[in-house]
Specification:
This protein is mainly alpha-helical. The protein has helices at 52-79, 84-112, 120-153, 155-160, 166-189, 198-232; strands spanning 2-4, 7-9, 31-36, 39-44. The protein is built from six helices and four strands; from the N terminus they run E-E-E-E-H-H-H-H-H-H. Helix 3 packs antiparallel against helix 5 and helix 5 (166-189) packs antiparallel against helix 6 (198-232). The longest helix has 35 residues, at 198-232.
Length: 236
C-alpha cells in the first residue's frame, strides 16, 4: 500500500509476496490508474474473460426487465386512469427502466467495444445514472409500502389527509434528492467535476448510507406491519 496525494493506493504483489511495481500508474491485471482533474480513477484497459458469464447474465436480465417495465409504463401511461398509488408505481417503473437501460448498454459495450475507447467520463456518466435511479427506485418502493400501510391501517385519515397533488410533489422531491446526493458524491469523490475532497466525500457517503438505511427500515417495517395485519385480520 502506498500513500499518494492524501489517498491510499494498493499495489499488487506477485505469488512470492513481492511488489509487482511501486509505481501506482503501472497497468496491473488490465487496469490503469489515471489522475483526472486531481482525482485518481481506475480505468480498465483489457477485458477479463472471467466476467463474460456475468456480463451475459446482466444483459439477459436487463432485457427481460426492460420489457416488463416497458409494459408497466405503457399500461399506466396510456391505458389506466392514475391515482396516487399509480403515480408512485409509474415513477418506480421509470427509475427501474433507466437503471436497466444503462446496465444493458454498459455491459454490452464491455463485450463489443475496445475498452480503451470507453472513456472515464462515459463510465462516470453510467455510474451517475445508475446511482440516481437506484436511490430513486428504493425511495419509491419505501414510499409505496408506507402509503399502502397507512391506507390499510387508517383508511379514513389517509383519504382526507392525502391531497391529489401530494403524490406528484413527493415524486418530484424524491427525484431531486436522489440527483442531488449523486451529484455531490461525484463532485467530492470522483473526477467528474474536478472538486475532489476526501473529507466532504466521506461526509456525503455517510449521508447517503443513512438515507438508504432509513429507506430499508421503512420498506421492511411497513411491509412487516402489512403482513401481520393480513394474518391477524378477522376472517369473514
Amino acid at each position: 500500500m502506498r500513500i499518494n496525494n492524501n489517498s491510499l493506493v494498493y499495489v499488487s504483489r506477485n505469488s512470492s509476496g513481492e511488489f509487482v511495481s511501486l509505481d501506482p500508474t503501472v497497468s496491473i491485471l488490465g487496469t490503469k490508474l489515471k489522475v483526472v482533474n486531481g482525482c485518481q480513477e481506475i480505468f480498465q484497459t483489457m477485458y477479463n474473460m472471467k466476467f463474460l458469464p456475468l456480463d451475459i447474465l446482466v444483459i439477459i436480465i436487463s432485457l427481460l426487465g426492460l420489457a416488463g417495465n416497458g409494459l408497466v409504463l405503457w399500461l399506466l401511461g396510456f391505458q389506466m386512469q392514475r391515482n396516487a398509488l399509480h403515480v408512485y408505481i409509474f415513477n418506480l417503473a421509470v427509475s427501474d427502466f433507466l437503471f436497466l437501460a444503462v446496465q444493458f448498454i454498459f455491459h454490452l459495450m464491455r463485450l463489443t467495444s475496445d475498452l480503451e475507447l470507453i472513456s472515464i467520463y462515459i463510465h462516470r456518466l453510467v455510474i451517475i445514472v445508475k446511482n440516481v435511479t437506484y436511490i430513486t427506485g428504493l425511495s419509491f418502493l419505501s414510499f409505496i409500502s408506507t402509503q399502502r400501510c397507512l391506507s390499510v391501517l387508517w383508511p379514513l385519515w389517509y383519504r382526507f389527509h392525502h391531497p391529489k397533488y401530494m403524490s406528484a410533489v413527493i415524486s418530484a422531491l424524491l427525484w431531486t434528492l436522489s440527483l442531488l446526493l449523486t451529484i455531490l458524491h461525484e463532485n467530492y469523490c470522483h473526477s467528474t467535476f474536478g472538486n475532489c475532497d476526501r473529507r466532504l466525500c466521506q461526509q456525503n457517503d455517510t449521508i447517503i448510507a443513512i438515507w438508504l438505511i432509513l429507506l430499508f427500515v421503512l420498506l421492511f417495517g411497513f411491509g412487516l406491519v402489512l403482513l401481520i395485519k393480513l394474518f391477524v385480520a378477522p376472517k369473514g
